Amino acid sequence: MTGAEGEVVAITSLAAGGAGVARLADGMTVFVPRTAPGDQVRLAGIRRHRRHAVARAAELLEPGPDRVEPRCAHVTRDNCGGCQWQHLSNAAQAAAKRRIVGDALRRIGKLDVPDPGLVESPRAFGYRRTITLTVRRIGPRAVAGFHDADDPSRVFPLDDCAIARPELNALWTAIRGSLDALPTGDDVRLKLRVMPAGDVHVVVGGGDCAWTNGAHLARAAAAAGFVVTVWWETPGGAARRVAGGTGGGEASDIAFAQVNLEVALRLQGDVLLAAGEPLETAPQGACALPPRRVLDLYAGAGETAVPLAIVCPDVVLVERDERAVRRAEAQAAATGHSVRCFAGRVEDHLEQLLPADVVIVNPPRAGLAESVTALLARGTWRRFVYVSCDPATLARDLARIRATAAWIRALRVYDMFPQTSHVETLVVLQPA
After folding, report:
1. Which residue has the higher pLDDT, 152 or 357?
2. Is the dihedral of CA 282, 283, 284, 287 positive or negative?
C-alpha cells in the first residue's frame, strides 16, 4: 500500500539498518535511508506495511546538524550500497551505534542497561583490507563494481573505494583494464586483499568453467609494481594458487583475513582477557587460577582458542567450517598446546561438552539456535562471553538465556566498520 507523495517529515533518529526514522502525518513510523537526525525531507515512493512505512528522501529541505558531505562520489552518483552512513559525522555514527545496541538490549533483552561505550576505529576511511567486486558482462565488455543500494541487480563500475586500504585502490587501478581475462558466468566475483604482512592477493571465484587466465592479472599488477598472488576459488571448493608469488600464506590464511585489523585485534584481546581471567577472587595468600574448561563455539580458525590453550588446560573448539577447523588444529600443533576441535554445528555438540567454566560464542548474524540458548539457560557455565554482529539477535539470545543486568561484567561496542551501520558488540556475563 502506498501513501501520499510529497509529505514532509523530520528525521528524529537512526534505525539499526541505517535508515533515518520519522513519523508520517498519521503517526505511522517511516524509515528513510540516507537521512540524518534533524533532517527535514520531502518523501517520495512511500510504501506502507502493517506497522511501518518505507520511503526515500526526494528532497532535502533542511540538513540536520550531523550531516556531512560524503567523501566518496559513488555514494551520491551511484547510490552505492556499501556505505549507509558516509553522510553522517563520525561522532554521530558512534552515538547512533551505542544507542542502537543499548536500545536493543533494553527493548528486546529487557535489560536495564545504559548505552555501552564504544571502541573507535583508528581509521574512519581506508581501513578495509578486503573488498569484493561483482563482475557483470555488458556485451563483450566486463564490468566490476558494487551494487546499487535500492536495486541489487544493478552493478556500477568502481572507480575507487573510500573505505578500502590505499594499496587495494592502487591494485584495482592496475588490474581493472584486464577484466576480460576473468571467467564468464553470472556468478563471477573478484576479491582484493592485503594481509597484515603487506602481501597482496587477487581471488577470483565463480564462472562457467575452469579458469586459466590468472597470469594475465598477475602481469597487469606487476606492471604497476605489485607482486600479487592470484587465486581461483573453484565452485564448492577451496581456493588454489594459479599465478603470481609463491609466498604469502596458504589458502586458509587468505580466507580468514580480518577486514579491520586494528579493531579486530582489540576485540580479540578483550575476549581473551575476559575468558582467561580468574573466575573468582582467590583466598588470601593463594594464587588465583584461570578457568580450567573453556568452550569456544562458532570459533573460526582458532584465533581465540589457541592462545587460551596456553593458560587453560582444557580448551574445546566447535566450528562448522572444516577448513577453519583444520587451520585451528595446525595452529595449536605449532604452539605445542592442545585444543580439542569438533567440526560441525554447535547445537549437535554442545550438550555433551557442558558443563564448562567459560563459554565463548561468536555466532553469525542469525545468532544462537534456540536449542543452544535452551542449553545455556540451564546455567552449566560460570562465565559467558558473547561476540555479536547483530544487536537484535544478541538481545533476543540474552533474553532466552534469562540473563539479568546484574550479571553483566562487561559491555562494549566496537566500530569495526566505520561509514556503515554495522557494529560488533562484546557482552561478558557472570552470574552473581
Report:
1. 357
2. negative
Render pLDDT for 322-353 as a digit per residue (tens, 0 to 9): 989 999 999 999 999 999 999 999 999 999 99
Over the chain, what is the mean pLDDT?
92
Our CA angle for 165, 168, 174, nearest 5°, is 150
Q: How far is CA 410 from CA 308, 318, 375, in A?
A: 19, 24, 22
Identify the bridge partners of residue 389 per DSSP, sorted by sequence position.
none
Would you call the peptide bond into 355 cis, given omega within 30 degrees of 0 as the criterion?
yes
pTM surpassing 0.90?
yes
Lowest model confidence (mean pLDDT) among 84-88, 330-334, 411-415 = 330-334
Other C-beta atoms within 10 Å of 271: how many? Answer: 23
pLDDT band with cut points at 50, 70 and 90 for residue 251:
low
Q: What is the largest CA-CA distance in the chain?
A: 78
**Hey, what domains does the chain have and what are their CATH numbers?**
1-67 (2.40.50.140), 97-121+260-281+290-429 (3.40.50.150), 130-255 (2.40.50.1070)
Best CA proximity match to 150, nearest among 239, 94, 75, 93:
75
Closest CA to 172 of 217, 141, 140: 217
Residue 245's pLDDT is 74
28 CB neighbour count, 10 Å cutoff: 16
State how far Cα 129 lies from the chain centre.
13
Count Cα atoms within 13 angstroms, Cβ side, for 163.
24
Residue pair 25/48 in contact (Cβ under 8 Å)? The answer is no
What mean pLDDT do residues 90-111 have? 97
Size (the chain), residues: 432
CB atoms within 10 A of CB 42: 15
Helices 391-401 and 90-107: crossing angle in degrees, nearest 10, is 30
**Of residues 24 and 288, which shows the higher confidence score?**
24
SS3 content of the chain, % helix, strand, coil (to 5): 25, 30, 45
pLDDT at 288 over 70: no
Tell me whether residue 179 is exposed, middle or buried, using C-beta atoms within 10 angstroms of its C-beta: 0 to 12, 13 to 18, 19 or more.
buried
